[in-house]
# Entry
Amino acid sequence: MDSERLRTLLKAVSSGQVDPEDAAAALIAGPLGGDGSGFADLGYARVDTHRGIRTGDPEVVYGAGKTAAETVGIVETLRRASGVGTPTLVTRAGAATVAALRERWPDTRVSSSGSASGDERPATVVVGPLPEPRGRVVIVAAGTSDAPVAEEAAMTAEAAGAGVEMVRDVGVAGLHRVLAARPVLDSADCLVVIAGMEGALPSVIGGLVGVPLVAVPTSVGYGASFGGLAALLGMLTSCAPGIAVCNIDNGFGAGLFAARVARRA
# Structure
């Protein structure tokens, strides 16, 4: 259950369409858990079943470090709590986890790069239907190598209720590519700009348009990029105003931030 469904339920109680006891039972069985705690204790995880009401964001499972069975168990619990009408997001899912999620929920959506496509990079997974989009997020990837982080950001923003458009391979090595995309960038409610190497792309775009922008450094680059540290420091010290910066490779954090901005817009 999310905040919008909670409001609908409360309005139905207020108008007499739903009995208060039935509403209480729905809350206890769903977001509050069987004991009213707001989480479900699976032994290996205490699953937060109340996030949708608190924030309006989708339920999320960080897949790295968890077994496929643990991830499926957590997602199963979240699906029961939130209902079939809302999505559950799994980030950094390995090949075994992707296969297990697809077996349990055949309509699962998986990012086109990562474990789903047969390489060793983790994938982003969405279980359940996407919400009706509100607002518009544009995800900008400097290079093809940044695609896994860009797809994580895009799928997160979609699961969080924003409309999403992707602009790929417009790094600063060819500025004419950025200029050609300017109308798309200017029409967004929020931008997510993803770059490795020296991480200059957010500064360039931040000086071209007045759209709220969250920058994501990636670990793409040769030795002196220090696994994304050079890009992170470059983005933090950008001379272009209006730029917020997420952690290295954190497409999830950027996508959720951008979706919140877009929903409000």
